[in-house]
C-alpha cells in the first residue's frame, strides 16, 4: 500500500498540472501545432511517391524543379570561371551497379570538363583515397576529396592534404565491436574501415531486416559514442561514424575560398549529389561566407538526384540524367575551345 503522505503529494502534483493544462489549453496547443504544420501548405507542391505500404506524400517547394540541360548550358556559356562539385555513388555511378568503377563515358566527360582552363572540377566522395586514386588515374586535372573531405587532392600530380581537425580516433575501439555484432547477426552486411571513419553496409542484406538493423545500430552507436567527437549518420544503405567537422560542405568552402585567394573569382558554381552528406555542400555553396569576397553573386546550381526534400533548388531523375547534363557542359567547352583556336589561327594567317 502507498503511504498516505505520498498519495497526497502525488495528488497535489497531478492536480496542479491538470488545473493549468485544461481542455482549453490542449485545444489552443492543438490549433497552434496545426497552423504551424499547415503554414506553407498552399505554397508547396505535393508529390505521391512509392506504392503500397511504402507510399508517402512529399511536400516540396514550387521552386524545386528539374534542372534543364539547355538552361544550365546557357548559363555555363556566359560565365568565365566555374567550380563544379560532383558526388560519386548515386550521382555519376548508380547505387545498384555491381561494377563500382567509373565508365569510360564518365572518365571522358570529366576529362573534357577539366581540359577547360576556366573549370575547377572536384569529385567529393565518402570513398577512400586508394579507390578514387585508382579509378581516376586517367584524369590529370581532376580534384578529388576522399572520405567526405578528410583527404583532398587538387590534381593527379599534387599531394594529398589531410584535414587537421580530426586527430583523435580512439572512438574506433568502441564503435567497431558494436558494428561487428550487428554484422554477425545480419546476413549480407559488412564493415568498411576507412582511415577517418567506419561504415556499416547493408545493401546486400534483406531490405526490411537490414533497414531495421541499421536503425537499431544507429541508436546503439549514438548512445555509446555520446561523449566522443564523432557524428553517427545513416545514408543510402549505410550507417557511418566519422569525426565531427569533416563534411563535404567544408570541401566546397575550401575550394571556393582558394579560388578567390588565387584571384580566380567563380561566377558559376554547380554541385550535384544524391545523399544526406551532399546536403552540406548544397548549403555551403549557397551561403554568403565566400560571396562577400566576390564583386557579383555567382550563378548557383545545387542539384539533388531524385525527387525528395532537399536544400537543393533543382533535381535530376537519375545518374543517366547527370551524365547527359555533364556531356552538355563538356560539349559547350569543346565548341568554345575550337572556336577560340580557329579565331587565333585565322588572326595569325592574316597577320
TrEMBL record:
One of its GO terms (cellular component) is cytosol. It is an enzyme of class 3 (hydrolase). Coiled coil: none annotated. Pfam families: Trehalose_PPase. The keyword Kinase does not apply. It comes from the Eukaryota. It catalyses: alpha,alpha-trehalose 6-phosphate + H2O = alpha,alpha-trehalose + phosphate. Keywords: Hydrolase. GO terms for biological process: trehalose biosynthetic process. The keyword Hydrolase applies. Pathway: Glycan biosynthesis; trehalose biosynthesis. Its cofactor is a divalent metal cation. GO terms for molecular function: trehalose-phosphatase activity. Its EC number is 3.1.3.12. PANTHER family: ALPHA,ALPHA-TREHALOSE-PHOSPHATE SYNTHASE [UDP-FORMING] 10-RELATED, TREHALOSE-6-PHOSPHATE SYNTHASE. NCBIfam families: HAD-SF-IIB, T6PP. Removes the phosphate from trehalose 6-phosphate to produce free trehalose. In the C-terminal section; belongs to the trehalose phosphatase family. Belongs to the trehalose phosphatase family. This is Trehalose 6-phosphate phosphatase. It comes from Betula platyphylla (Asian white birch). The gene is TPS3.
Amino acid at each position: 500500500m502507498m503511504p498516505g503522505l505520498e498519495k497526497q503529494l502525488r495528488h497535489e502534483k497531478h492536480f496542479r498540472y491538470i488545473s493549468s493544462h485544461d481542455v482549453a489549453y490542449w485545444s489552443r496547443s492543438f490549433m497552434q501545432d496545426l497552423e504551424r504544420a499547415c503554414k506553407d501548405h498552399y505554397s508547396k507542391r505535393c508529390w505521391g511517391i512509392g506504392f503500397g505500404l511504402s507510399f508517402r506524400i512529399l511536400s516540396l517547394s514550387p521552386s524545386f524543379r528539374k534542372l534543364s540541360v539547355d538552361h544550365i548550358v546557357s548559363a555555363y556559356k556566359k560565365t568565365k570561371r566555374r567550380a563544379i562539385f560532383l558526388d560519386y555513388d548515386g550521382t555519376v555511378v548508380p547505387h545498384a551497379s555491381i561494377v563500382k568503377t567509373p565508365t569510360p563515358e564518365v572518365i571522358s566527360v570529366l576529362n573534357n570538363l577539366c581540359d577547360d582552363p576556366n573549370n575547377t572540377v572536384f569529385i567529393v566522395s565518402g570513398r577512400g583515397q586508394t579507390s578514387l586514386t585508382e579509378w581516376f588515374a586517367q584524369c590529370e586535372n581532376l580534384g578529388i576529396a576522399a572520405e567526405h573531405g578528410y583527404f583532398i587532392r587538387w590534381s593527379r600530380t599534387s599531394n594529398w592534404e589531410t584535414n587537421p581537425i580530426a586527430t583523435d580516433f580512439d572512438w574506433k575501439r568502441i564503435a567497431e565491436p558494436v558494428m561487428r555484432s550487428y554484422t554477425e547477426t545480419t546476413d549480407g552486411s559488412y564493415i568498411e574501415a576507412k582511415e577517418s571513419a567506419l561504415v556499416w553496409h547493408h545493401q546486400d542484406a534483406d531490405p526490411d531486416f537490414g533497414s531495421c538493423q541499421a536503425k537499431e545500430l544507429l541508436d546503439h552507436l549514438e548512445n555509446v559514442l555520446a561523449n566522443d567527437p564523432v557524428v553517427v549518420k545513416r545514408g543510402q544503405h549505410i550507417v557511418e561514424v566519422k569525426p565531427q567537422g569533416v563534411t563535404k560542405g567544408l570541401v566546397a568552402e575550401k575550394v571556393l575560398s582558394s579560388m578567390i585567394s588565387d584571384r580566380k573569382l567563380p561566377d558559376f558554381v554547380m554541385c550535384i549529389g544524391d545523399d544526406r552528406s551532399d546536403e552540406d555542400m548544397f548549403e555551403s555553396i549557397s551561403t554568403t561566407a565566400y560571396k562577400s569576397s566576390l564583386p557579383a553573386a555567382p550563378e548557383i546550381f545545387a542539384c539533388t538526384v531524385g525527387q525528395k526534400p532537399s536544400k537543393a533548388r533543382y533535381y535530376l531523375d537519375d545518374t543517366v540524367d547527370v551524365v547527359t547534363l555533364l556531356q552538355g557542359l563538356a560539349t559547350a567547352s569543346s565548341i568554345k575551345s575550337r572556336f577560340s583556336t580557329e579565331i587565333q589561327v585565322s588572326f595569325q594567317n592574316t597577320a
